[in-house]
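User: Working on a comparison across species. This one is Xylose transport system permease protein XylH from Nocardia pulmonis. Can you predict its structure so I can line it up against the others?
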Amino acid sequence: MSVATTISQPSPSRPEPGASLLNRMIVRPEIGAALGALAVFLFFSIITDRFLSPLGVATWLDDASTLGIMAVAVAMLMIGGEFDLSAGVMTASTALVTALLAVHAGWNVWFALLVSLLFALGVGALNGWVVMRTGLPSFIVTLGTFLALQGLNLGVTRLITGTVQVSGIRSASGYSSAGWVFASTTNIGDARIQASVVWWIVLTAVAALVLVRTRFGNWIFAVGGSLVSARAVGVPAVRTKILLFMTTAFAGWVVGSCNILRFASVQANQGVGLEFQYIIAAVVGGCLLTGGFGSVIGAAIGALIFGMARQGIVFARWDSDWFMLFLGVLLLSAVLVNNAFKKRAERVRR
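Assistant: Here's the predicted structure for Xylose transport system permease protein XylH from Nocardia pulmonis:
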């Protein structure tokens, strides 16, 4: 018996057979983000020539990529009904672990990356276990993790290096091959595409398949829609939510690895505050704050909107302060549009 058909609405990516084209579009959470991305793309394409140049395209794709990697993982967690406020600082924590082991302990970069991955997965598992064990809101639990990691980042880095920065990883053994995986560039015409863009595309495709084509994806929608009902029909709720927190931690490791191997240095306070941008990108992409509804493709598109808008403002030579106004309007509009689309989708399914 399919859990999803018992306790949740049908997946938004699989509308009922015979539905009209309009209804098929309405039930997809990412449709609002797609329309918004098209509007932003057309707007900046018209007002500035640099936006569509090879360098311009590579720049806003690069800007959106690391945000997109995190937004996809955060979207899955939000669909599952939880939040992770430690996602931003996790990108710095994993980069610092890698850099400290490779530069100051003399480890091979690949071994340092493996330890930082285990560290990230451990923190993610702890977050999920505490949330499910205590019943505390994930907002509070991960806020505590955020503060703890921020303190560790600053304290340990200053203790070992005497500063709040670690650099010099390019001289460590194994950097060349690790750098190719996480920080290489691909030339497409005159555009130089960063490895983070490839990671973003691949992880979005994998997450989309998992969410709409696997039993685990059904479990995510189930625990986000109704945890009590999910448990009643046998969904392993604890395991599902712990794995979701580990997914956001894994995404933080990927972003941290891309950053440290590309820029060869990391600040202890890096990533602080970005967790809200991840959540905003997921909400813009169609995720509801109440859980049980959303799309990882939409979250990726939400990150793309961020990248296009942020770099489009630069190309247009506007004051970058206007970007925060854009974020506020975008968030409010996305919440209103998502609620309207969800209500319409529910009527279509009936």
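For your comparison, note: The mean pLDDT is 87.

User: Helpful, thanks.
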